[in-house]
Every structure is written in structure tokens, then in C-alpha cells.
Write a structure and sequence with these properties.
This is Tetratricopeptide repeat protein. By secondary structure, this protein is mostly helical. The protein has 31 helices and four strands. 67% of the residues lie in helices and 1% in strands. The strands form two sheets. The protein has a two-stranded parallel sheet with strand order 1-2. Strands 3-4 form a two-stranded antiparallel ribbon. Helix 10 runs parallel beside helix 12 and helix 16 packs across helix 17.
Length: 621
């Protein structure tokens, strides 16, 4: 063998080969159970299913579910055209409405709707894992626990267990997909991923208007990847911003009571905007909510579905000034961390951007905050916290702690799911936090009264009355309860007291009518007086029927006939209307007319026993 062909293999070369081989052997070994994506997805899905298992037996709740599902004929009968082109509850979200219609095709019961919400929520948790994995380039522990805490956090129960919040889980699903495709586009420079990201963004906007903040999140993603925010990156997202502008204008118009220049069908009239508070008050509420959500991320306590606005004098309380200051300090700290702490800037930025539209700076509705608003924003905070923990502490040593926290969250979530069992459970969970709120107390009092639990109905409304609550609904429900207990004098007292606080025609009408019905058992002249006041206040046909009944009881038959004929002329005559007309005509000497009206009453309702008996009295069999 020639020297040319001889190969000398020294000990150093052998060692290097061995080291390379050892390196590849170690990298081939799975360093985390989360490298098995199907096992990871299964753990996430199982954890969420355990936490939300009780939700599958829940019913609809009387808080928007009626408007969105069980009283919405477009959903129940799958009127696809209207579902695509209508504004429901001051929101344009056609894709959400389509999914509700598809659910209704399968079953009209709440279970299928809730199951779908939970299923989408599971998919969202999986997408969170994928998203964080891509952002951190494979930090699986961070990705897993971010997804797990997102999936089982008690603050997210409202978004998942409440049927009407389909829009929350659905828009987040497409929002996350859009973000993932954008990261893939940035990393791989493949245009198809940009196209897919834009398509997912469009679907997200069609699911809920909140999605319009996605372009700002994409700017934050650029910052995370490149370490700075560049003007060229912002400008390159012009197509995202164009879509966001369009859907932002649609959302603002819908919330303000419009139909976007006649382009859409508006199902219900009225604006959702709250114009009561000053701009400075709104800023205080924004700061209060911003920090309260953060507190509840760590300590999810006192969770309930309705965070009422405070009374004017309560705004002066220290908490409404102290928490906004803390919020401002956190935002300043995040801005100052722009170059020094990428995780803090990204986390707080993501949280702020995805939350800012619902911080009540533009006040919508009657609540300062809502647990559902934390659904997507918490993703930024959870990720940022876990990333900083991994960077500064031994993450593996804290895994047991995170596991225990997860078990606590799963337990709290399962308990919170129970509060969404039905309307009564929902209200009973919230009223201890806002006992004087007119919506909560009157709604719960009405439920108790319908159940026949009159003492509870009285108790829930008399409490606010004793504390000076100025809302006629408390007096109405308390009066109704005493009426059903046959304590007519107390019923009359509460109805009369309530008139002081009935500022609009609706409230006055209700109380005048109730006074009339109560006085029918005591004094027909007083009954007629209040029915007349109610009719003068708001001309409703059924008040003419009630007036007619009182006129008959007082022997004023011609006046009774005048009112009842008007009911007939307006096309609202029922079988009982004709029996009353028959009495009036008979007493006025029109026997033929009386017989004819009684026969008409029986045609409308063959089981009208009063009409049958009166015909027998008149000798007609």
C-alpha cells in the first residue's frame, strides 16, 4: 500500500467522532414527554374535559341565550340568509351565528351547544401550545404549561360554559391560527402562510369584532422575533389593518344602534353604548379593570357573571384610584423594558392590546368588567410569567408546583361551572357581590316569585329598598309577591311607592296596571282609575280589555262596549273579549248581538265555559 493511500487515525480524531456520535445520541433522546405531540394534546384535552365535565348537564341561562338561541327563530329554523346578514344583540358575527344554527340542527338542547364550546376551547388550548412552541423555538415546558393554564383557568369558565359566548372561543380559534401561520410565514418566508394568516384573520373578525386587534399582535410577534419594532414591518401589514378598519367600523356602528348604512338587518333596536359616565371616570374604570384582571389571574376569587358599575359616590373610593395607578406603573415598566426585557414587553403588550377594547374607555353595556374579557389576554400574561420563570429559575424544579396549581385551578373551574347550571344558579352566585343591583335582584326575585318562593322574592328585593335603592323594579316584584300572598294592602303600598322611581312610561304602565289588577279585588272604581291612567300613559290594547272589565263590573255597559269594540277594531279580540262584549250587549238590550258574540267566542275557543253557560242562560243549546 502506498503512503498516499494510507490513512492515519489518531486518538484525537477518534475522540471527536465519539463526541459527535454522543451528541446526536443525546439529541435523539426525548428530553420531555411534551415532545410527543399526541400525548401532549391528550393531556390538555383530558384536563379540560375533567374541569368542564359538569357543564354538559347545564341548561341555557336567561342572559342572552334567549336572544342567541332558544328564542331566536333564525337559529332554531336555520335561516342561513338572516344569520349571515343580521346584527344580533348589537353585534355582527355571522360565523358565530352559523355555528349556533348548525348546533340547532343537531339538537335544541343546551348540551350540544356547550359541548361545542368545550371542544373549541380544547382546540384553542392545543393551538396555544403550538403557538408558544413556535415563538420559543421548542421550549416545550413553557408551551405546555401556558396551554394548560389557559385551558383550565377559572376565569375562562364564562367564555366556555356560557352558550352565548361561542363568539369568544370561536374568534380566538381563528385568531390563534392566524398568528401561527404568520409566525410560519416569518420563519419560512413562504407566501402561502401569509395568505392563510389573512384568511384566518378574516374568519376571526366574522366570529367577533374583538379580533380587529390582531395586526397589533403581529407587530408584537415581529418584535419578539427581531427584538425591535420596525416601521417597515408595521407598513407591511396594511392588508391586516384594512380588514381591521372595516370590521372595527361595523362593530362601532352596530354597538351604536346602526345597521352599517342598511347593509345588514338589525334584529333589535337600541344602542349598547353607556353614556352616563365621564371620560375621566371611564379611565378610572379602565385602570381598575386592567389590574383587577391581573389579580384574578393569580387569585381567581369572587368570580361572578356581572360586575356592576359602582354608585357615583363609590367611585371616590380609594380602590378606583389605587389600582389605576398600579396599572399605569406596570405599563410604564413594560415600555421601559423594550430593549432590556423582551418577555415583559411582549407579555404586557399582548395583554394590553387584546384587552384595551373592552376596558370600558368606550363604555358598552352595564358592567365595568367581565370574566370573558380575560380569555385571550391571559395568554400573554401566562406566557410572559412562565418565560421569565424559565429564564431566571429552575423550571424543572417548579414543575411540581405548577402541577399542584393546575389541580387547584381544575377544582375551582369545576366549581365555577356549577354556577352556570341555570339562570337561578347564575344570579344566586352574583347577587351577594351586588345585592342592590336592579338587574340581579329583580331577575332573581322574579324567578323566586314564579317558583312560588314568595318569601325569598320579597327578601331579595326588600333589602335594596331598605338601603334606599331607587328602582321601581324592586317595588314591582315585592308588590307582586305580596299580591300572590293575598296581602293586598302591602301590594298596593309597594306599587304606589314604586311610582316615585318609575321615570319612564314602561315603569309607570307596569305599576298602574298592577294597581288596577289589585284594586279589582277591592274597589272597581279605583281599578278603573288606574287602568285609565295606564292607558293614558301608554295606549296598549290589553288595557282597554281591563278597562272594559271594570266598566262591566260597575254597570257602565256602554263605556265597556266602546272600549271592547276598539279592541275588536284593532284586531286583538280574544274569546274572553267576545264574552265581555256579550254581557255588555245583553245588559243594553241587544240579546241577538249577545248570542252572536258568545257563539264567536266558542268558535275561537270551544272550551270557553263562560260562553257555554251564558248561552244556556239565554236558552241556546
Amino acid at each position: 500500500m502506498s503512503k498516499k493511500n494510507k490513512k492515519i487515525i489518531g486518538s484525537v480524531s477518534k475522540d471527536r467522532t465519539s463526541q459527535v456520535a454522543d451528541f446526536h445520541d443525546e439529541s435523539a433522546k426525548k428530553t420531555s414527554i411534551f415532545e410527543n405531540k399526541w400525548l401532549t394534546y391528550s393531556i390538555l384535552a383530558l384536563s379540560i374535559l375533567i374541569a368542564y365535565f359538569g357543564a354538559f348537564n347545564n341548561d341555557f341561562v336567561g342572559w342572552d341565550d334567549n336572544a342567541y338561541v332558544y328564542e331566536n327563530q333564525d337559529v332554531l329554523k336555520q335561516n342561513w340568509g338572516r344569520l349571515l346578514g343580521a346584527i344580533y344583540e348589537a353585534n355582527y358575527h355571522p360565523l358565530t351565528m352559523l355555528t349556533l344554527g348548525i348546533n340547532a340542527m343537531i339538537s335544541k338542547k343546551a348540551g350540544i351547544f356547550i359541548f361545542t364550546n368545550v371542544l373549541i376551547h380544547i382546540l384553542n388550548a392545543i393551538l396555544v401550545f403550538v403557538f408558544i412552541k413556535k415563538l420559543t423555538i421548542g421550549k416545550l415546558n413553557i408551551a405546555f404549561f401556558t396551554a394548560l393554564f389557559f385551558g383550565i383557568h377559572p376565569m375562562h369558565v364564562e367564555s366556555v360554559a356560557w352558550v352565548s359566548e361561542r363568539k369568544d372561543v370561536l374568534y380566538t380559534f381563528f385568531f390563534l391560527l392566524s398568528s401561527i401561520y404568520y409566525v410560519k410565514y416569518v420563519q419560512e418566508k413562504t407566501k402561502k402562510f401569509l395568505t392563510l394568516s389573512l384568511l384566518m384573520f378574516l374568519l376571526s373578525c366574522l366570529s367577533k369584532g374583538m379580533a380587529v386587534v390582531l395586526p397589533l399582535v403581529l407587530v408584537l410577534i415581529d418584535y419578539w422575533i427581531e427584538g425591535e419594532i420596525k416601521l417597515k414591518n408595521i407598513l407591511s401589514k396594511w392588508h391586516y389593518f384594512a380588514i381591521a378598519l372595516l370590521f372595527g367600523l361595523i362593530a362601532l356602528d352596530a354597538q351604536s344602534g346602526g345597521n352599517f348604512g342598511g347593509l345588514f338587518i338589525r334584529i333589535s333596536e337600541g344602542s349598547a353604548m353607556n353614556q352616563f359616565w365621564s371620560f375621566s371616570d371611564k379611565l378610572l374604570f379602565a385602570g381598575y379593570g386592567f389590574f383587577t384582571y391581573i389579580v384574578k389571574l393569580f387569585v381567581p376569587y369572587n368570580l361572578h357573571h356581572f360586575y356592576a358599575y359602582p354608585y357615583v359616590n363609590e367611585v371616590k373610593g380609594s380602590v378606583f384610584y389605587f389600582l389605576p395607578v398600579l396599572s399605569l406603573l406596570l405599563l410604564v415598566a413594560a415600555v421601559l423594558s423594550y430593549k432590556r426585557n423582551k418577555a415583559l414587553f411582549f407579555a404586557v403588550g399582548f395583554y394590553f392590546v387584546t384587552l384595551v377594547l373592552v376596558l370600558q374607555i368606550i363604555a358598552v353595556g352595564n358592567a365595568t368588567m367581565a370574566e370573558r374579557y380575560s380569555y385571550l389576554p391571559y395568554l400573554g400574561l401566562i406566557f410572559g410569567i412562565l418565560y421569565l420563570v424559565d429564564k431566571n429559575l429552575d423550571f424543572k424544579k417548579l414543575t411540581l408546583v405548577f402541577g399542584l396549581v393546575s389541580l387547584v385551578f381544575m377544582f375551582l373551574t369545576s366549581r365555577q361551572v356549577e354556577t352556570w347550571k341555570d339562570t337561578k344558579s347564575l344570579l344566586e352566585n352574583s347577587i351577594p357581590h351586588h345585592p342592590d343591583d336592579s338587574y340581579l335582584a329583580s331577575s332573581l326575585g322574579t324567578i323566586y316569585a314564579k317558583e312560588g318562593n314568595l318569601d325569598k322574592a320579597i327578601k331579595v328585593c326588600e333589602g335594596p329598598i331598605s338601603r334606599g335603592a331607587a328602582n321601581y323594579k324592586f317595588y314591582e316584584i315585592t308588590g307582586n309577591s305580596y299580591f300572590l300572598k293575598n296581602d293586598l294592602n302591602k301590594a298596593i303600598k309597594y306599587y304606589n311607592d314604586g311610582l316615585v322611581f318609575a321615570k319612564d312610561s314602561i315603569g309607570k304602565n307596569v305599576l298602574y296596571r298592577n294597581l288596577g289588577v289589585t284594586y279589582q279585588k277591592i274597589d272597581q272604581n279605583e281599578a278603573l282609575k288606574y287602568f285609565t291612567l295606564a292607558y293614558e300613559n301608554k295606549k296598549e290594547v290589553d288595557l282597554l280589555k281591563l278597562k272594559g272589565g271594570s266598566y262591566i263590573a260597575l254597570g257602565r255597559y256602554q263605556e265597556a262596549l266602546n272600549d271592547l269594540n276598539e279592541v275588536y277594531r284593532q284586531g286583538f279580540a280574544s274569546d274572553s273579549t267576545f264574552t265581555d262584549m256579550a254581557v255588555a250587549k245583553y245588559e243594553l238590550g241587544d240579546r241577538v248581538g249577545a248570542v252572536k258574540d258568545l257563539e264567536t267566542a266558542l268558535k275561537i275557543n270551544p272550551n270557553n265555559q263562560t260562553a257555554k253557560n251564558n248561552l244556556k242562560v239565554l236558552g241556546i243549546n
